[in-house]
Queue: 4 jobs
Job 1
Amino acid sequence: MSGTTTRRAGAPATTPRGRGPVVAAMMLGMALAALDGTVVSTAVPQIVGDLGGLSVFSWLFSGYLLAVTVTLPVYGKLSDTFGRKPVLIAGTVLFLVGSLLCAAAWDMGSLIAFRVVQGLGGGALQGTIQTLAADLYPLKERPRIQAKLSSVWATASVAGPAAGGLLAGYADWRWIFLINLPVGLVALWLIARYLVEPGRTAGVRAGTGTRERAGGAPGRPSVDWAGALAIFGTGVLLLTALVQGGVAWPWLSAPSLGLFGGALALAGVTVIVERRAAEPIIPGWIWRRRTIAAVNLALGALGLLMVAPTVFLPTYAQAVLGLGPIAAGFVLSAMTLSWPVTAALSNRVYNRIGFRSTAVIGIGLALLVLLAFPFLPFPGEPWQPALLMLLLGGALGLFQLPLIVGVQSTVPYEERGTTTASVLFCRQVGQSIGAALFGAVANGVLAARLGGGGDLDGLARALDAPGSLTDSAADRLRHAVDAAVDYVYLGAAAAAAIALVVLLTLAPRRFPVLTDGEERTP
């Protein structure tokens, strides 16, 4: 393969006969994790009307995101230590228990707590399924399974809000969580029945989570629980500060400074604990290997730039273009249509020119698309941003998938879970940072244009209320929103530029890829 070198790798995960059912289980599990990030959004009015808690309802989303993000590194290491199957089964069970508890919630506080339980299971689903995809398929076939998983996320982003609205409007909002049970139970049965992992040999190499006794007999797996707790605490403090800063309290207030200071202190403790651990949750080689470090940073920048289309584009479509919520969703869905297509076809590119070059082309094109957004006419036509989103999705499909497939192909079986989890963790943290950063940028532009504060959601509601604004006031608000979103897209372009620079300067030109035949032996 052009653009790669080879070295030894890891182990298969199931029999050829069982691969189809396992893939079906993976897609069902990924659908659970993907839908629960979007399906609740349109049911919020019914949930608040039943349980109350309007002032804290945002934690229905923030709590779930926090739990998923901070547990990704832990589950990655556990899957390398104990295998994918037990971690995936445990995560699915935990997710279903959380779903059942959410359906039985009696107030907003209990529902938020049970959403966190769901997120604890969701972290296992996301990370382990992505890792298992690399275990199941040889290098040449991995784009196919990754494209299927991408299509699940694309479908969830479009269908999730609609499904939540239908269930809340025509049944009861509790069915949003109860519907997870039959889907999850089918996935659980398929995994338990068909996923067959090879026997694990202790002491094969550093990082397996096992020790050899005298004479080569395997000892008990070593799990860095102190490191896991430190990572969890650091992530909770950091992401809480990012999610709530500028919303629940000012950025320079005591709560924000306290949370950031606590996260910094715990990060220092985490480094000390991980350096002393025999089998650290986040081993040092994650950042010492150029390929993994570069991919982590590049996909962290991807999480950052994705905030512009996913968070701000729907508001732009409604406030500036005057579209309804459903039509605004279709503008965004153009990106989710092209992303899986180019992802599935990306192997034809990276097989010729290599992983890094393919990703560079993808992020370079994405940079141009993001820079083009501020040049859209005001107010413009809906097809114009939709076309840009179609191009953006195509570019990012060429960017993300080659990096994930490439980095998974540079590590053996017993390091793949940790590596995959680190990539997903960086992307999630980037998204949280982007939401906070671009939210501040948008609010700053709005304040400058309108001479006061305000947020995009509030402005969108004002524009949607007939007769609440004069024509001149509505036009002024639309111009302000247009300018704010333009600046957000410029910020997203800066994130794309950072990813491009990282790939060109840090990532090796040829990824040290393991051969398919060798990576099937632990």
Job 2
Amino acid sequence: MRMAPEEDSGNSKANHHKTPPPPATQQQQQVKKRRPSWSDGQLWLNKGDAQQALRNVVNKLRLQSLSNSTTPPSEPDSDIQTLDDPDPNRQCSDPDCTSLLSDALLLNVLSRLPESQHISNSLVCKRWCKLSGKLVQSIKLLDWEFLESGRLVFRFPNLIDIDILRACVKLGRNSGILISHRLVSVHLDSSSANGGFVRREDILDWEVVDGGVKILVEGCANLRRMVLINTSEGSLKCVADKCKTLQELELHCCDDFSLRGISGCKNLQILKLVGSLDGFYSSMVSDIGLTILAQGCRRLLKLELVGCEGSYDGIKAIGQCCFMLEELTLYDHRMDDGWLSALSYCSNLKTLKLQSCKNMDSSPGPDEHLGSCPSLEELHLQRCQLRDKQGLRALFLVCVSARELVIEDCWGLDNNAFASASILRGLRVLSLHGCSLLTTEGLDSVIESWRELQRLRVVSCKNIKDSEITPALAMLFSTLKELKWRPDSQSLLSSGLEGTGIRQKGGRSFRWK
């Protein structure tokens, strides 16, 4: 057997032992692999806040080691500072470790926690309470004194969304009865029996509301959405001057001339104007207010008018001035006859919604004077009375270019009224919900004229029967991209039992034991 060289005999005894490199090579490797240590007082972090926080940890560990030694501690360095105790020589029995973190770092940590924990986090200490308040961006005010005292803007300086409606209603909150509306919810008491649920004297005076709004906008200048009630022109001007980033505004119980104050809101894109609300409060918004609104808010994208009065002139002014308007919603409108023809001036309107309207237009005028909305894509009718066939036909003529028609829980829509929808030749989506007077025959006669129909939804229409479906209608169903067919409970039961053999002659049946 050939012997290994003499210089390799050390390696044959222990494989894990290696001959140390020359001193120069070992020194080079130590220099190459050496990293900054805690004792050097140097940190390799680049962020200033993190570096300061870790330096505080190191300094505090030094203080604790010095206090535990037998010799008296030396004078601490001048740069050793702790945030939880101004005197670094005094030792706390239970120190707060989070005090070593800067406000920016601690705020970053708290922002990553779920929103459900913000309230419990704010109860830890005053510092956490202040930092947790900076994370709140949306709030519904219930206590008006909280705003007047200045505590609201101090506690929540980064608000971008606030609703002060509930705080401005002076009804007792100890009542066990709460009435909720789509737009407002209030508690009821014995004084609400006469004159509606919310009387005029139950709302704070406009002088008081203006004072609170000025405190709010001066402390929270980054607001993007506000819900206000009973505000004056001066208060709205203050909002326009201070809140340059305001994009959405909801006004309740305001008159015509107070709307002049929002002309300075250059970036306002969404506006909801609530005039009269049955059972709650009533205010006058007429063509004067609509014209002022149109001239002052030319960059509106969405406009919702609730309980507003007006006529052809007001809607025409909105269409001519707000040329960027894409969505218009009318809730319980009080428009005069002939207003429908003014919709043709809304050249860029894409969505039209009519909700809880008692009529469309009693006297729309000749068809040649109605015009149409060339860019309209969607027409929504929700909880409206459609007994006026002339007004409904005029509405379909104005919306002749619509691609989607949605009718939900509307009264009076029978076969004759629905027949006027055949004007919508380019309709692609039809959704019917709660149309109890419409029959299968009326639906079949209109759908035949829609060659581009792609989606059909029929829900809770009890007079539309499966047994009355014609072969032509069944053939149309097979070509649709989407079909939701639940006109009544019987149809729903049939579709659920399909393929099971139940309810067929000679099939299975249930037996009670």
Job 3
Amino acid sequence: MHNLLPNSQFYKTVTCKIFCICAVSLISFSSWAFSYEDVINKAKDLSKKTYQQPSKNIPSELASLQFADYQKIQFNHQKAYWNDEDTRFKLEFYHEGMYFDTPVKINEVVNNHAQEIKYDPSYFDLSQIHLDKLDTKNLGFAGFKVHYPINSPTKTDDEVFTALGGSYFRAIGKNQIYGLSARGLAIDTGEISGEEFPRFKEFWIERPEPNQKHLVIYALLDSPSVTGAYKITLIPSVDTTVTVEAKVFFRTSVKKLGVAPLTSMFLYGPNQPSPILNYRPAMHDSNGLSILTNNNEWIWRPLNNPKRLSFSSYSLENPKQFGLIQRDNGFQDYQDLDDHYEQRPSVWTEILGDWQKGRVELVEIPTADETNDNIVTFWVPKKQYNAGDVLDISYRLHYTLNDQQRYPSNVARAVSTRLSLGDIKQANLIRKLDGSNAYVIDFAGPQLSNKIPVKVISSITNGSIVSTDSQYNSVTKGWRVIVRFNVEDNKKATDIRIQLASEKTNEILSETWSGQYPAQ
């Protein structure tokens, strides 16, 4: 166990035997047998008790920190867990501060025995924020982070996973930087009654064996409405995966339950240009929601930054996967030398088991800057869960810079979406604008060519389609669709669906582009 026993050769044989007996006694009092069933039982027992609001324990000097100052709190890397052991993983911790003002309990599991990792002020350096003299001995950890060498076999300081705040966690793979976040659970997101944020109040982290390539993390979830036991298996790689197995217990009924939630940011992009002049063509951690249905239909929904709270819903039975995707992944798409949005990963949620009937819901929240996560998507079961119910769920998150690899070769993707005034090309020359808008959608895929004529299948709600024109794009080796449309009620969102099909055989050649023109 980490730093539990001193490494001393001073004692002679008899003294050493006495010391070892005492050490064993010490271990028996400070550690206990542990398994995932223990977390399940804790969650079950907790669900039968009245919810207790966690108490905040940090001084005002830490509570008033701005984000830039909070980031200056440095962890002492020499104190990292497993730093002196033959394992590729390293475990470090977050200090309490800012709105991370509630301590979480963190335990290490060794040989099926758990021992709490105690907070120690020496783990952290607060000198950069001039609080190194502050008394912090009674504080705790706000969360933890995991290091693993994914970019170089000899580099051990690659941070690949972090758990901080509520039930949020993030992961990355090779050559990726943090973008969107995952959550343990979402409750009443976007509801007028207000959102409830469950939190992971305790973690158990298995110490990895030498050369082990995965890390197992257990977590206890708590909120006014639910409790939950989570088993999270992290496998860092080129495309890192995080497998989540959870058992959720309901204290009360939940109006809207969000399973496997992903939270991201979309400020602007070609489908919704910046309202102010900006040298960067786009700013977002994700630019679309992708869904694979049970009947193998692929759906692509470009994201928006709406002027008012917006909901989109896709009713499905046992879908195969969904995710928030960063489809634009070239530096030229962003021109940002600081934030490098092209390195933010797409995250696919692979559904494990039968999720039965429900819906994938997308919530888009207005935001004026990139510091706010304004995009949330999750699965909402059709079944209504009430007090005493139990939900078993499992899924796997895939973090990748190449979302295309999950698409079959016979499905063309909408590789770009641009918004324009409807008749602007001709209007510049011969006539006034007719008041319509247009989406310009480029579809690309190996099955598309100028030798296979295509037709456009389209539909619209809250409006009318003026025209749909298709043209072969010799640059992308695909087809460009220009769909012009009029909006009926500007105070409502307008949904448009576009597919490409073979003109000769009617075979569907593309995913379903499911764009939404936001309410104005």
Job 4
Amino acid sequence: MSVTGRGERWLWLLAACAVALAVAAVVVDVRDGLTWRAFATGDPGFSVIMASTFPLLGAAVLHREPGNRLAWLFLLVGVSRSVFVAATVWTRHVYLVDPGSWPGGPAASWVAFWTRFPAAAVAPLALLWFPDGRPPGRRWRAGALPSAVALAATAAVAALSWPFRGHQLLPDAPQPPGPAAAAAAVCLVLIAAAAATGLAVGLASLVSRLRHAEAEVRQQVKWYLFGGAAAVAFNLAGDIAAPHAGLNLAGTLASEAVILIAIERYRLWNIDRLINRTLVYGTLTALVAVTYAGFAAGLGLLLSGVAYGRNLAVAGATLAAAALVAPARRGVQDAIDRRFDRRRFDAVARVRAYADQLGTRPAAPGQLQAVLAEALRDPELSLTFALADGRLVDGAGRLVDGAGTPTTVPADDRRTVSRLAGGDGEVGRLVHRPIPAHEQRLLVEVLAAAAMPVEHARLQAELRVQLTAVEASRARIVEAADAERRRIERNLHDGAQQRLVALAVRLRSEQRRQGLAVDPAMTALLDLTVGQLQDAVADLRTLAGGLLPAALASEGLGPALRELVDRQPADVRLLCTPDHRHRPGLEATGWFVAAEGLANAVKHAPRATVTVTARCLDKTFVVAVTDSGPGGATLDSGTGLRGLADRVDASGGQLTVTSPPGGGTDLRAVLPCAVLPCA
């Protein structure tokens, strides 16, 4: 068996012996007349609890961490208290209950006198060495000196009190005379002073660990301090409010349970929530109690001469206290969070402030992601949304970003994916850095505060998906109409127009071949027929020209615009044309803008100077028709401009008309040139 194994076995054996000794002493003390009141309010109960629990606590610590010196420290406290309890019961039985019935009374009185002090002497080490059995650093090693002084003084007390064993060391006996007794009294004062100094140093070491240690150790220290505060609260309540309820003993057990939780690292991160709730409800209870007492006293004075005035005062005070609870809780919670958990308070407050703004100002795409990234201090955080109907978005999956663009969750082992749930199931996913255990509550409360903004952003993203689908559908309709227009133009040119031209040529050729043999009446009929055929061809050419010019498809927008300008009767100048090709839909839209603008200018300003420009400008394609006419035009002036505006909008652009009365007209279309790169 290893040294560690043997040490643990001996510790468990000593712990069992200490517990057995304490239990046996309690059994004897109960037979000698020990009452619950004396046990709960006096030294016996406190000492028995320590004697029966601290050795077991030490054994548990040694089993968890074999090298932790706190295990032997707890064993020393438990064993010394166990011996103290047994010696005290023995002394009381020999000298008070049944004098002379048992031997060893003087030795028992001597042991009972000094064995109460080792626990006080080593108590500061429990603070200094917590939680790993070592001081926080080299400079804290001197913190064990007060305990060493107290232990030395305890040994001196034991040596100096030996001559006075017996009746002189009973609890109520006066101090014996002589220099030895005076020296023992000085040592007792030294023990108290050294223990107080050591406790102050130990508390300072805990504060140092709380400020500088790693996160897990800080949580252990928080548990330890919380247990100490709980023990103090229980003891005060036991001394003041309910002295017979055993609250003092409960305080001791609570502190030991907290020590075990901290060293075992069992649910360490719950301490923050426990401390927060304790402070909130403790403060709220105090406020309610003060409010109740104040209203009860004030109303009692006001209603002192009224029948049932006391009952009315109690009822009024109860109503006032109840009315205070709801509004005060949020204020107390915010005040405590701001003071003791500032980071979580600021993060949740930031998300709540954003949520409050949603009702007054529109949210930009990706704004919620930026808010969550700031709250969680993760610049690489990404937020995606799941579509409510679960449909695929362009075949790329059912997740979209804030702008409604299909996306996927990146596969990265260094990132964590949190699924965001809503009333209809999953509403999105949050990809963020791994959250440490001590920040889990921060993540939970931030996501709880962001529940409404997440749903709002998801609905916005889904709306953008639908708008994108509508815009794509409109663009496809426009492209289909242009394709159908070109098909009709080709059919007219290659079909009916060619047949009519061929028929007119054949008739004229037959007329020339017959010459003078043709009846004059027939010659006139042939001339009329050929003329009608030529007029029909001209009409077809005009109709085909109103669809899309052939130059637009074969050569591009520049030549098509030059051809369009050359056919105009007014003073029209073409200032700028693109020297490269664009996608067919964009070129067709630009040509229709120029054609509609020129037609309106010729119709409403026949003697005005007209300019046409078409150029790429700042990642946009701008087509403008400007005239110096009378102005006064609007987009609602006619169906032509209204239909043209719809076509430009379907192409992802914007059509504007600037036409002040007497100031000319500027028809301008701004189209997204960057949708597809220029060829």
